Amino acid sequence: MKYERVLRGDLNEDLIGKIHSILEEPEWLLEYRLKGLEYFKKLRNPDWGPNLSEIDFKKIAYFASPLIVPRPVRWEELPEFIKEVYIKLGLTKEYVERYLGGAVLQFDSSPVFKKVREYLESLGVIFMPLSEAVKDYSGLIKKYFSKIVSYSDNKYAALNTAVWSGGIFIYVPKNVKVDIPLHAYFRINLENVGQFERTLIVVEENSEVTYVEGCSAPILSASPLHAAVVEAYVHKNAKVNYITLQNWSKNVYNLPTKRAFVEEGGKINWISVELGGKVSMLYPSAILKDNAVAEIYGISFAKKNQIFDTGGKLYLNGKNARGIINSIGIVMDEGSKVTHRIDVFINKGSKNSKVFSSCRSLLINGETESFPRFHVEEEDSYYNNESKTDILDEERFFYLEARGFDRSRALRMAVLGYFEDLLDKVPDIYKLEIKRVVEVDIEKYGSVG
Amino acid sequence: MFKITKLNAWIEDKRILEDINLEVRPGEIVLIAGPNGSGKTTLARAILNDPKIKKEGKIILGEKDITNLPTHEISKYIYLAFQYPPDIEFLLTKDFLKEMGISDEIYSLFDYLSLPKDILDRGLLTGFSGGERKKFEILLSLLKDYNVYIFDEPDSGLDSESISKLSKILVDLKNKGKCIIVISHISRLFIDIKPDRVYIIERGRIKKVGGYELLKDVEKYEV
């Protein structure tokens, strides 16, 4: 990696300046970083939701070498969607294993990754680290950077703007449907799992892209705070699928801000599977213009002492806009908690717009609650929310065990069945990976619980 | 042979069963009767090793001590038709049956028990009438081969046609040499078939053991 330094301590202009100069960024970015710092100091922690007062900002590593994600090197270990990319590009199992096996350091120059890169280049797609893109495509990035998630949006978006490093930039030109999913896996230097990573996706008119972040293996974190920002600009009639598998180690506060701006007729799908972390606050959001569509699907799997505060936010600013938010919680143990939080703003002029939301929890042990809120300024609109808690208690376990299911099989059947409907909204190839990731988690649970 | 010796059971430190001795030979139907709250259901659940019941004593199936096997292991040998099976709304009945490894043979049984097929698309035991619950529990007993069958109040809420079908099912199981335990206080079930032995439980103890003539006493216990 290019940088091996760690910067900690008091967050001040001096430290921001150091990050800026280490990364050799264009001048305009420093202004954003300093604005971020200003708002980070000005803004308070939210006075609702999980307790964040234990975060000790003096102990955070604000800048560090990006983390290395464990990478599968055997064909069998690869997620289905990655295998499918190789198959599509005409690479065989033997070829992939020959060039990936053990050669971790040369990943990016390996023929396998070169093939992926060449394919994307042939489409005119840019897929690279954001911190490099700000140098190569300064003008393009400046047009979108911090425009969808402002540095003043919330304390942690401000912090990210001040200290961000790592993360990716995706640009898809007009009329291009990228038919392979993009994943940091395809480039060694795209370590998108830094503490303060920043992602910017710009998809031009009539184009389409799918981005998958995270992986099924638990990711050890050097720092207990992860505050990412994801901005997606979806132009007219374009489409973005953004799929997250979050599996941070159990000490992490995960406080990302994810938002899409969706132009006329465009579509954003946010799909999140939350497995890791100690406290997670995640509300993917979308600003919708005429005929734009947002679908926000989340599965939170809360085990011992994990707290997930999650749901989605929609701002309907156009006619015939459509939104769906489905938030599912699986609440496993004492001390675990899932809070569903839905915020929908149906603004004046968004005539004939419709929003459907649901908050469902499968409660085994722990706590769950729902806060759906609708702020409606346009009468010619429709919205509906369903909140429901289903209980899998000892009596139900006993019944299933009396029918021959051991506890972990009963759990697996109940949990996988619980979000089956939601998975039907996800393309098959990711469905398999999501199921697999959750199954691994349940198995682990079954063996200790 | 299915045999229970010196079984004592507690729920949250409250003694529910005291010194229960009971046996069922292959091809026998045993009736357990007694007033509500006498411990009949606790006995059935203790046999399946319900973790919330603490117990002492032995439960032997053939040569095997199954007293402390996990419930899902015991369920390979013993089928318990629940008195009040819980509803599990989020688990579709058809998915549950599929996971149990049950095939299409089930459809004819739905007709036989006049159980509506639309329950397949409903949550497990969700929105079932009292009679449908009982029939569903009976239906599950027919889908696999067990050594011991326990029916906990299988006939309450059943119409007379269904009761005579259940009675026929019991005869079939008896003829196959199964051990059958019926917990009931209604004798309608025993018009065509007589239990081989009747145990009367009161306040957690076996009060009387005897033949069918004891049923006259059972009538007395009806609530």
Describe it.
The complex is a heterodimer of chains A (449) and B (223). Helix content of chain A is 28%, strand content 30%. Chain A has helices at residues 13-22, 27-42, 80-88, 93-100, 111-123, 130-136, 138-144, 155-163, 394-402, 407-418, 420-423, 428-448, and strands at 126-129, 168-172, 182-183, 198-203, 208-214, 225-226, 229-234, 239-246, 253-254, 257-262, 267-274, 279-282, 285-288, 293-302, 307-316, 322-331, 337-346, 353-363, 367-376, 381-391. Chain A is built from 12 helices and 20 strands. Mean pLDDT of chain A is 88; it is low at 102-107 and 188-193. In chain A, the strands form 2 sheets. In chain A, strands 1, 2, 4, 6, 7, 9, 10, 12, 13, 15, 17 and 19 form a 12-stranded mixed sheet that branches. Chain A starts with 12 loop residues before the first helix and ends with a helix. Chain A is of the alpha/beta class and 449 residues long. Chain A has 2 domains: 3-282, no CATH class; 394-449, no CATH class. Chain B is α/β, with parallel strands linked by helices. Chain B has a single domain, classed as P-loop containing nucleotide triphosphate hydrolases (Rossmann fold), CATH 3.40.50. In chain B, 27% of the residues lie in helices and 31% in strands. A 6-stranded mixed sheet of chain B has the order 6-9-10-3-11-12, sandwiched between helices. In chain B, strand 9 (148-152), helix 6 and strand 10 (179-183) form a beta-alpha-beta unit. The model of chain B has no long low-confidence stretch (mean pLDDT 91). Classes of the chains: A alpha/beta (449), B alpha/beta (223). The interface between A and B is medium-sized, with 21 and 24 residues. Chain A: This is Fe-S cluster assembly protein SufB. Chain A: It holds the Pfam family SufBD_N.
